[in-house]
Design a protein that fits this description.
By secondary structure, this protein is an alpha+beta fold. The protein has twelve helices and nine strands.
């Protein structure tokens, strides 16, 4: 019995030793696999004929020598010094690399090594922007903040007009319905990519050298726009609105959008598509709404031959924001020699131009076409897209002052 007991104890000790040994091997291998090279910044802006520096370093001591070769997707835009170097095993040294800007543009710098060390250098990449002028960079930043403020404030003139008149007559309900859906989907897109780590990881896998397109100001703007639109909609329930309502055409359009969003969400939930694709589909619906949302208000003004009850202030601010947004894009295209961003993929610029053109049309309606509007009874505002002219009805309770 004693001999068997000793053998049993020895077996247990041996098993414990083997388990500890395997655990140490696993930890050692894990450390070896997590050791890698990285850089102090993945985004750098350098001026023409000027120098900037980034640093390559190891997050943990390497177990083997690594030969690093830096390559770019454009041979003429910048110069790297050194373009290749060896990072010795066990070293804590930092390798500085000097970038010299030669031609304006966007350049991606990536690291290459032998097949055995590919994983070690995969985080060594830098997105370099070669700019012509630092003054243009600061001007672009100022333009960005000004149009951000202009677009954010643009919701409040209409809210103030409604409050003063205690009426929403003249404000198109189709426009509000499309706006709240658009900004809700826009908020979903921004909040998803900004707050949800799984979506950020999915974006990084799909675009390993890309940068998250959503910033904090995008999140703040979309949520604020949704909030201001909700306030305006609530005013429609409490203030005088005559017989205005959302049109059946708008309900039909919103129904189509709802089907697209629900089906996309179902496909994402069933793992047929990725949730990132679902967010992109939501953004496409928002872009479509941006194109069509101004039409009902413009048509309503035309049929009423008046802009009374509808605030020109939001249009002036929207025009300011849209104009500065396009100017910023043109400024950046010149500064970074990136005209492809405008003419090669004209979606963003085209949408901005489309909105500004509508703003100009609204200003013509307000200041030129219907500068001296006829008086309208409340029954002239029966629907979002219809105005029934009843000239025999009283006009005593409708203000004709333009705001």
């Amino acid at each position: 019995m004693n001999k068997k007991t000793q053998q049993t104890r020895m077996g247990r000790h041996l098993s414990t030793f083997q388990l500890a040994f395997l655990l140490l091997i696993t930890v050692a291998l894990g450390n070896a696999q997590t050791s890698s090279l990285t850089v102090d910044s993945h985004d750098i802006t350098v001026l023409l004929n000027s120098n900037e520096t980034f640093v390559v370093f190891a997050n943990e001591a390497l177990t083997t020598d690594v030969q690093v070769t830096l390559t770019t997707d454009s041979e003429n835009h910048l110069r790297l010094d050194p373009a290749s170097f060896s990072y010795p095993a066990g070293s804590n040294q930092n390798q500085s690399v000097v970038i010299t800007g030669l031609i304006a543009g966007y350049v991606k710098v990536v690291a290459d090594s032998d097949a055995a060390n590919t994983e070690i250098v995969k985080d060594v990449f830098v997105r370099v922007t070669v700019a012509k002028s630092r003054a243009l960079i600061y001007t672009s930043i100022v333009f960005g903040w000004v149009y951000f403020v202009a677009w954010s404030v643009s919701f409040y003139p209409q809210i103030w007009v409604n409050f003063r008149r205690k009426s929403v007559e003249g404000l198109n309900f189709d426009f509000l319905a499309l706006n709240i859906v658009g900004f809700t989907l826009y908020s979903m897109f921004n909040c998803g990519l900004y707050f949800i780590q799984d979506l950020q990881d999915e974006y990084e896998v799909r675009y390993p050298l890309g940068v998250n397109p959503v910033m904090l100001n995008d999140v703040v703007f979309s949520l604020h726009a949704m909030f201001a639109t909700v306030i305006t909609i609530l005013q429609c329930f409490f203030y005088q609105r005559a017989q205005q309502r959302v049109s059946f055409i708008a309900y039909g359009i919103l129904g189509i959008f709802a089907v697209v969003v629900i089906v996309s969400a179902g496909l994402a939930g069933g793992s047929v598509i990725h949730w990132l694709d679902f967010l992109y589909y939501c953004s496409y619906v928002k872009l479509t709404i941006t194109i069509i949302k101004y039409v009902p208000q413009a048509l309503m003004n035309y049929r009423r031959k008046s802009t009374s009850g509808w605030s020109i202030g939001n249009i002036l601010l929207d025009f300011t924001g849209g104009t500065l947004s396009m100017l910023q894009m043109i400024l950046n295209a010149h500064n970074y020699d990136d005209w492809v961003s405008i003419f090669g993929d004209p979606t963003k610029f085209g949408l901005g131009l489309f909105s500004v053109l509508f703003d100009v049309f609204f200003m013509l309606q307000h200041y030129v076409f219907y500068r001296h509007p006829r008086e309208s009874s409340s029954s002239d505002l029966t629907t979002v897209t219809e105005a029934q002219n009843r000239s025999n009805e009283s006009t005593s309770d409708v203000t004709t002052v333009k705001y």
